[in-house]
Design goal:
- It is built from 10 helices and 13 strands.
- With 350 residues, the chain is an alpha/beta fold.
- It has a single domain (2-6, 42-87, 104-332), classed as 3-Layer(aba) Sandwich (Rossmann fold), CATH 3.40.50.150.
- Residues 15-26 have a biased composition (Low complexity).
Length: 350
């Protein structure tokens, strides 16, 4: 089970769980009173909950500022710092607006969708290292060896860390300029996991603030237009007002022949994710491959449990919906598919 890869780091980092006790959970429900931050037993119990209640699988993990261990079968234990919630500054010109912008971003968690990307990249790298990865293999869609990777809305940037370990040529982790992730978490996760003898990498890794849709006005965006062959967007879809900006950003940075990985849980509902795909199709992207994955169970042989993507599922309740996510591979409209029989037309998806 995917969630079993995470466990809390024993409390040796003297960091507060959150600099704002009123920071809302990403399901838009205010949290109950936090447990004592020194109670490791509480952390362990919370980590085991998905095993007890698989239909109520979490879409996010950790608390702001907490350190988690991500157990990678290929790279060993990686320590991932969850971004802290940004403190309200008394000296800034618009402190309330900055904090409210931070609330919208919900960067201060590790999202399950990012773990889906990380696992896929790990599997592809493992097969490729053995010379067993075929272009017709399903897992080939996750290969990043020699690719130029861009992560949008990176948050804790676990996928970026994994892509660097999997020998991508370059990895750029981006988040909104006001994101708390840029205040130390991404930097820690990159430095701590990529600059050690245990996990050496020659990948060129950078961290870049970027606001979706601000393309011509951003010198970095202008310089890197059409440069990235793989774009990651994991759980970036809960703000409908940003769908168009997100798609335009994907198209702007996507290199010829490149692909976009879209992974989204349904914690804000299925309709809002379906709305993103509608926007993507309208603005010049195509869906090459799409399916739903069960985050809480696996086949007897350890392979994923999948089902057909559906924009609507009659009778689906919010509890059961949480255990599923959608995985899609997008490309520019009109480009040749990687594999003919995996091409999905607009009519087949909708």
């Amino acid at each position: 089970m995917l969630h079993a890869r995470l466990r809390p780091v024993p409390r040796r980092h003297l960091l507060p769980l959150s600099s704002s006790p009123s920071a809302p959970r990403p399901d838009f429900v205010d949290p109950d009173e936090e447990a004592d931050s020194d109670e490791d037993s509480e952390d362990l119990f919370a980590a085991f909950l998905p095993h007890l209640f698989p239909d109520d699988a979490p879409s996010f993990h950790g608390d702001p500022g907490q350190h988690l261990l991500y157990s990678s079968p290929r790279y060993g234990d990686l320590e991932i710092m969850v971004p802290s919630y940004p403190a309200q500054s008394r000296s800034s010109d618009h402190p309330v607006n900055q904090v409210e912008e931070g609330r919208k971003l919900f960067a201060h968690f590790l999202w399950s969708a990012g773990m889906v990307v990380a696992e896929g990249v790990e599997k592809a790298d493992e097969l490729e290292s053995r010379g067993q990865l075929s272009k017709t293999d399903e897992v080939a869609m996750w290969s990043v060896r020699g690719e130029k990777v861009l992560e949008l809305g990176a948050g804790a940037a676990l996928p970026s860390v994994i892509c660097a370990l999997a020998k991508a040529s370059t990895v750029t982790a981006t988040d909104h300029p006001s994101s708390p992730a840029l205040s130390g978490a991404i930097g820690f996760n990159m430095t701590h996991n990529l600059r050690t003898p245990k996990t050496p990498t020659s990948t060129n890794v950078t961290i870049q603030p970027h606001e979706w849709g601000t393309l011509e006005a951003d010198p970095w965006a202008v310089q890197n237009k059409g440069c990235f062959t793989r774009i990651i967007a994991a759980d970036c879809y809960w703000m409908r007002s940003q769908h168009e900006n997100l798609v335009r950003t994907m198209r702007w940075f996507l290199a010829s022949g490149g692909r976009v990985w879209v992974v989204a849980s349904f914690h804000t509902g299925r309709a809002i994710v379906a709305g993103f795909f509608e926007t993507a199709l309208q603005l010049g992207l195509e869906i090459e491959r799409i399916y739903e994955r069960d985050l809480s169970s696996a086949q007897d042989d350890g392979s994923e449990v999948r089902r057909e993507w559906m924009p609507e599922r009659e009778g689906e309740g919010p509890e059961n919906r949480k255990r599923w996510c959608v995985v899609a591979l997008l490309k520019r409209h009109g480009e040749e598919a990687v594999k003919e029989d995996t091409l999905v037309s607009v009519h087949e998806v909708w």
